[in-house]
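Training component of the fellowship. As part of building independent skills, the fellow (R.M.) carried out the full modelling exercise for a liganded target. The chosen ligand was magnesium ion. The inputs are recorded below so that the supervisory panel can assess the work.
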Amino acid sequence: MSNNFSISASGLSKCYTIDRGLFHKNTQFLALNNISFTLLEGETLGVLGESGAGKSTLAKLLVGEEIASSGLLLIDNKDVTHLNIHKRLIEHRKIRMVYQDPYASLNPSLTIIELLDEPLKNITKLNKSERKSRIIEVLNLVGLKSEHGRRLPHMFSPGERQRIAIARALILDPICIVLDEPLSALDISVQSQIINLMLELQENLKLSFILISYNLPVLWHMCDKLMVLCRGQIVEYGPTISIIDNPQHPYTKDILTNSSHSQNNIQVTDASFCGCVYSDRCENALDICSTKQPEQSIIDEQIVYCHKFASINTEEDGLC
Ligand SMILES: Nc1ncnc2c1ncn2[C@@H]1O[C@H](COP(=O)(O)OP(=O)(O)O)[C@@H](O)[C@H]1O
Ligand SMILES: [Mg+2]
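Fellow's submitted model of the complex:
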C-alpha cells in the first residue's frame, strides 16, 4: 500500500442552532466537535457510534453537502474547507457517498443511464460518446451489463440497486467513498456479495473507504482503523482489531457489548458544555468528568479521551 494521502481532517466541527421559539433564546449545539483523522490511499476507516452521534454529519462534511463551522479538511492534499458552491462540487467529486437505502437515494423516474449521466454532464466536460463509454465501464465494474442501463430503479433487486448506487458513486472517478450504513437494508446473503464487490473495487481502483456501520463483523473485516463517536466527539480512535478486542473507553465498551445502543437517540450536547460527553452515563465518572474535556491518552496503539487514563498517566509520571 502506498502512502499517498487521501483525506486529512483536522479539528472539524459542525455547529447547529436549535430554534426554541419566540420566547426562548436559540441554543447552539455541536453535532461534531474537533474531529481529526487521516486516511491513506486504499485504507478503510470505520465510524461507530449510536444514533445521533454525528456520523452522517461527518459524511455530509466529507462529500461537501455541509460546510464545517471550523477546522480544516484536505482532499488529496488540497484545502477544501471553505470553497464556494461551484468549486465545492468540483473538489468534492473525489469523495462520493453511498447511502443506507439505495431505493430512496435513486430518482425512481430516471433510467440507470440517466442517473449515471447526470453527474458526468454537470461536472465533467466529456462529450456524449465519452460519457456513454464511461457509463458502460462503471456498470461493468459493479457487475451489471450495459443493457441494464435502460431500466428504471424499481426493476432491480435491492442488491442490484445498491450496485447501481455504488456505480453512481464511482462515476466521477473518486479517491474515497463514504458508505453510510450501506448494508443495513440488505439480506445477509446479499450483504456478503456487496462487501466482496467493495473489497474488489478497493483493490483494483486503490479507493479509500469511510464505512459507517454498526455491524461489528463487517467493521472487523473491512476497516484498518476505527473511530468511535459519542455526541459528536471522538472518544476512541485506533486500529480496528485492537479497539474491538480491547476497548479502553467506557463508551466503547458499552456500545460494543450492547448492540441495542445503536438505536438510542441521545440528547444533543449544548455547545457550551465543557465536560466529557459520556460523563452523565459513565458508571465510573469522576468529578472532573462533568467540568473538563479529557485530553487524549495513548493506550497501546489507541487514542482514548477519558480522564481515567489522564489520571493514571499523571500518577505514573509522579512515580517516575
Ligand atoms: N441540518 C440539521 N439541523 C439541525 N440539527 C441537525 C441537522 N442534521 C443533523 N442534526 C442533528 O445533529 C445530530 C447528529 O446527527 P447525525 O449526524 O445524523 O447522527 P447519526 O448519523 O450518527 O445518527 C443529531 O442530534 C441530529 O438531530
Ligand atoms: Mg446517520
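The panel noted the following from the submitted structure. The chain has eleven helices and twelve strands. The two ends are 40 Å apart (CA to CA).
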